[in-house]
Amino acid sequence: MVSGYIYDKTEGVEDFFEMQQENDRLLVENAKLLETIINYRVSVKDNSFEEYEANDTLRTYKVIPARISSKTINLRNNYLTLNSGSDKGIEIGMGVISNDGVVGIVKSVTKSYATVQMIINSQSSTSAKINSTNYHGNLIWESEDPKILSLVDVPKHANISIGDSINTSGFSICYPPGIFIGKISYFDLEGGSNSFKIDVALNYDLSNLEYVYVVAFEDAEEKKTLLESENE
User: Fold this and answer.
1) Beta strands in 18-101 (DSSP E)
2) What pTM was computed for the model?
């Protein structure tokens, strides 16, 4: 009876690890697929998919899969911790995304872990654009609702509508262009203001995340140097 109990428990542990290995394998496969999609999207204006597949120099983004070990969701400054760090190529300033949209930016790294400042953080600011107009602004979190963010600095002459999609602009070194963020759920032009007040509703739930993807931009240092020189 005791031996049967031990056998059942051992079998259960083995099944768990086999399932974990399968999940990790799928996560790596998803990362490779996402990497292909991101890089092709960046180069598609000038290249066909066949040209892209044959030319490694067109691949400017690398996608690193990572598992979340902890996170906060109901604070003013929310963070999550990844079970991957510099040993996997993760560096400070890299953008973090999920299958559904933007998650945050890497703020600190050790050999085996990384801390991510989520977009639902009072200190977060993400360059984003309205797809229907190509006008861009900065996405910040002002509300207490983890699914509502604010897009600021969009000029009042921009033609916008409820339901317009909001994506990353690609202007920063953190995120590639075209990563989905959400849709406009409300906008208004307050008296005397030169820019809209815009609410952006996330179509995904950050509290349910178990896995994410860290995006490494191979030309990050070159672009960072250029941006810093422009701001001098």
Assistant:
1) 61-71, 77-82, 95-97
2) 0.79
